[in-house]
């Protein structure tokens, strides 16, 4: 058997050399990335206009793998194992580190091509397949691939020794480059069914995020979830969220609507004032663990991770696609171990009771409730104040009375095309006080932005403090 696991990605889409732009790795250079368990090297065995091939080779240090932090979190406890030699969850980590931007669907120089399905071929060897080898076709063929598998000899120099328990895999199909990478990221560990690190709630979010757009429709999604997550409770949670998750519209459309509101508020730097006001309240609360509900693309999370006060940060968002953007902007895959342990992103609905949201010191709900249908507010309030019950909740929402002062905002028009409502100060205070009385919280209010004598401040903030157990 070979000493290193090897993945190659090839295309004949002309000019094929554009693969270098898609992967953001120049074919003329050798690219090396240090990993916690070894080194990843990207190079191009061929790069012409007719065909281009990028190779990702992993050189894994078995001593680093066992001695590192992964051992404490569920990595193999033996020095003798196949981790350094066969494709596994280690390959997924390397894919995210070396091709993270491509995996997120973005290309600095060839965005249109990144969004276009092209002829692609991926080869992996050696690859462990736990169980029936028919599973390979079951996983890849529904995604539109032609699948070829072959045997890997124990030693090419000694054919009489026979074949190893590993295979070589070739998948071909017309795919977006990001889709190919996400399929490999998820399905290689599924074939192996034996991850090198601790499997917890974060892996549910990762599966949903990397499987967004294809996993929910896969005919064998149950099998994928069970083998990827290993534990029945986690796979059930993932499948439940797959059934419940609704991607209301593409991230690009959401961004356009967000921009419409930002254009209105930008002259008074309202978003910056909101972030600073919320951070100040969080610091005053003394919280060390906190939730950001409806975290979006991570604007608040980026500030929180810079503050040493917050040792446990959980961002929650209903849209897996938006979560993927947040993870990229936060550079989660490139964070050091100590920093990465502090923050987690999960996909989830804010109107359901969720055990993952319990036990936090504080929660923020920044410009979120106005995006909910009014009839769902009761379920949201019960899930947050009645079930999760953080000690402090900081919630902001637009003040409708102030809208008349924004240039270009006509009477009766809301700030954001997706807002279901915008409350007056009295309406918001009524909602907040009712929640406080019902669930055992005291409530105070603070304006954000310059206060107009008649119309109030542009943003209204409520601070809830738990008074009952």
Layout of secondary structure:
Blueprint: E1 5-11, H1 19-23, E2 31-35, E3 38-47, E4 52-60, H2 62-67, H3 89-98, H4 100-103, H5 111-114, E5 118-128, H6 135-140, E6 146-153, E7 163-175, H7 177-192, H8 201-210, H9 221-229, H10 232-244, H11 251-265, H12 270-285, E8 289-293, H13 299-304, E9 312-317, H14 320-330, H15 337-340, E10 343-347, E11 362-366, H16 377-388, E12 392-398, H17 425-439, E13 441-448, E14 459-466
Parallel strand pairs: 8-9, 8-11, 9-10, 11-12
Antiparallel strand pairs: 1-4, 1-5, 2-3, 3-4, 5-7, 6-7, 12-14, 13-14
Helix pairs in contact: 3-7, 7-9, 8-10, 8-14, 9-10
Number of E-type strands: 14
How far is the N terminus from the C terminus? 61 Å
Q: How many helices? A: 17
Largest sheet: 7 strands, antiparallel
Oligomer class: single chain
Indicate how many domains the architecture comprises. Answer: 2
CATH superfamily of the largest domain: Vaccinia Virus protein VP39
Average per-residue pLDDT, rounded, comes to: 83
Radius of gyration: 25 Å
Helix content range of the residues, please?
A: 25-40%
Poorly predicted regions: 68-85
Residues in β-strands, percent: 15-25%
Which strand order do you get reading across the main beta sheet? 2-3-4-1-5-7-6
Provide the CATH architecture of the largest domain. 3-Layer(aba) Sandwich
**Principal-axes shape call:** elongated
Q: Please identify the structural class as seen in this structure.
A: alpha/beta
CATH fold description of the largest domain: Rossmann fold
User: CATH class of the largest domain, anyone?
Assistant: Alpha Beta
EC number: 2.1.1.386
Domain Methyltransferase type: 291-393
Cofactor: Mg(2+)
Protein name: Small RNA 2'-O-methyltransferase
